[in-house]
Design a protein that fits this description.
135 residues; mainly alpha
Length: 135
């Protein structure tokens, strides 16, 4: 295994772990999670929908062949999370000292690097589903 593969695995596992470990709170209706999504005005559908997207993203990140797709979706989710913190929730959510905000930034950075490392997968997806055959 070369250094690029090791770095990819570490970044994908970090991002997937953070995404997947928060699912318990979203899917069980933990009071802090409910309060956060209520503050955003999207409780309960936003909490559950975000949880489903994060579950799918975490799985896609773990599977090497779908790393780019997982990273791409993760970037979108994390931009939304960071924007929510900056515009509505605040960096410190329910006295967590900014922990949720920091985790969103960590996942965003991991996903950006993963997407860059696996850009050939993205190009292949583009060529397969978006680019029209020349003719």
């Amino acid at each position: 295994m070369n250094l690029k593969s090791i770095i990819s695995w570490v970044l994908r596992l970090v991002a997937a772990f953070i995404l997947l470990q928060t699912l318990y709170f979203k899917f069980t209706g933990h009071p802090e999670s409910v309060a956060l999504f209520t503050k955003l005005g999207v409780e309960p559908w936003g909490r559950i929908g975000t949880g489903v997207l994060e579950l799918i993203t975490g799985i896609l990140l773990i599977i090497p062949a779908t790393a780019f797709l997982g990273a791409f979706i993760g970037i979108g989710i994390m931009f939304g999370a960071i924007a929510s913190h900056l515009m509505v929730i605040g960096i410190d959510s329910a006295g967590d000292g900014g922990q949720l905000f920091i985790m969103a930034i960590v996942v965003l950075i991991c996903c950006i690097v993963i997407a860059l490392m696996h850009k050939s997968q993205g190009i292949a997806l583009y060529n397969r589903f978006v680019k029209r055959p020349q003719g």
